[in-house]
Amino acid sequence: MDTSQLLKGVLDLAVLAVLRKDDGYGYDVVRRLRAGGLNDVGDASVYGTLRRLYNAGMLTSYVVPSEEGPHRKYYSINETGRGRLAESAEMWRSFASTLDGLLEEVAA
Amino acid sequence: MNTQELGIEHYLAELRVALDDLPPNEVAEIMEDVRAHVAELSAELGPGETLEQRLGPAERYARELRQAAGYPPRTERLPVTTKRQWLTRPRAAAWGLAGATGITLLAGTVALRDPAVLLLPAVILVLSLALVHDRGPVQQDVRHLPETVRLKKWLTPEQGTPAERTITYLRTLQPAWWLVRAALLGLGAVLLASRNLLGFLAIAAVAVVSVYAGPRAKLDRRWLWFSLPASALAVGVLFQVIDMTATQLGYTPERSSYSGPVMQQYENIYVYDENGKMLTNVLLYDQDGEPINAPRYYSRCAANAGPEPVIPANRYPRPQIEYQNGVCYTVAPSVSAPSTSSAAEPSGSAPPSSGSEPSSPVPPTSVSPSK
């Protein structure tokens, strides 16, 4: 099964999760996701997700001037975002455990 | 701008096109993110590796981004409805740009004589840009005008044809043209500097800004309202410089070979009265009282340094010079001399009686060896 199909549904959650502790700019978020094990995550998908979460009011952004190259736009999670993260995390856990249960039955 | 930076700009431009149906604010935000991303990525690229290899084609990147961001799929903006309203703002702006560029090309050929003519295209440009300036850097309304689409189609021939290769090649020369354009405009400004300070400042400013406008117009199409006429002006200045140079080259040989009106050469003058009698010892003066001296050549008498005339140089007829045994003699004028020598005869009719024997000439000096 193609993990990119699975990713689509949970990329919001993953992005919110990596922004939970530290703010980050786009490529920074991509790197954290990959470092966390999501090797197949596409650059454009992450950028799109950041824009969607921002437009949905779950992230705020600020620009940090860079000495070499263009300015970097950092995204940080706000209260709405944290609320959504907690909610989605709960949903994911119950979904994952349901699926685990189904898989155990298959294995048994 | 090196090839890597050009690669980035190219990728970003393609991406921008693929997103140009989205709200301009949103596109600007996305481009801000992606620009930083692409810049950072390209710094990590190995030698020979391209952005496309790393990120996939810009179009796919845009599709993936749209999907993740929840934007609608790419919709082709329909051309502005032409039936209901023919003269839309984008159309007026596009034709204003085209017209002003044409006028600038014509005006550019006389701009060095009278830079004020450039005010006309400048006003047209400002007005036409004002019509569409608020529509963002992509100018999709202008892009989708039927005439623009047709022009673009004409400028992008089928892949692999000689025309396509030529246009692709010319595109690679564009950055060079931006420099040449600035140089031409600078030259025009310098040529104006001594005569028209305002014109000098205006064209010099255009020259400086044009360097920035060239690459900028790739990202923000509104700069075309500056960049295209600047090119036209540069071409106009080039024509004018060629014209000036050609005129100068055409005149120079003429001037250098100029030697004044050609005059009949003569070295003696015979004067006759109305009865056909030759007058002797006549002194001739011009209107300023200067003696009229026919040029006289003693070249054959070089051996003896030439006999000095023993009579006033403007007394006519002059004694003739006879050459004998290496010595020059001055001899009294003879009547036969003028009648036999057609060159000395004034238009053939002045001596009325060439047949009748004029009285024997009175020699101004006796025949005497000059030395």
UniProtKB/TrEMBL annotation, chain A:
Segments forming domain Transcription regulator PadR N-terminal? 15-87
InterPro entries per UniProt = Metal_resp_DNA-bind_regulator, Tscrpt_reg_PadR_N, WH-like_DNA-bd_sf, WH_DNA-bd_sf
> What Pfam families would the database entry show?
PadR
Q: Which PANTHER family match?
A: PADR-FAMILY TRANSCRIPTIONAL REGULATOR, TRANSCRIPTIONAL REGULATOR RV3488
Name listed for the protein in its UniProt record: PadR family transcriptional regulator, regulatory protein PadR
Automatic annotation (TrEMBL), chain B:
Residues that span the membrane, as ranges: 92-110, 116-133, 175-191, 197-214, 223-242
In its UniProt entry, the species of origin is given as: Lentzea fradiae
- Disordered: region residues: 335-371
What is the top-level taxon of the source organism? Bacteria
Q: Where is the composition biased (Pro residues)?
A: 360-371
| Signal peptide coordinates | none
> Compositionally biased, Low complexity: which spans?
335-359
Q: What is this protein called?
A: Uncharacterized protein
Q: Which UniProt keywords apply?
A: Membrane, Transmembrane, Transmembrane helix
For this protein, the record's Pfam families field holds: HAAS
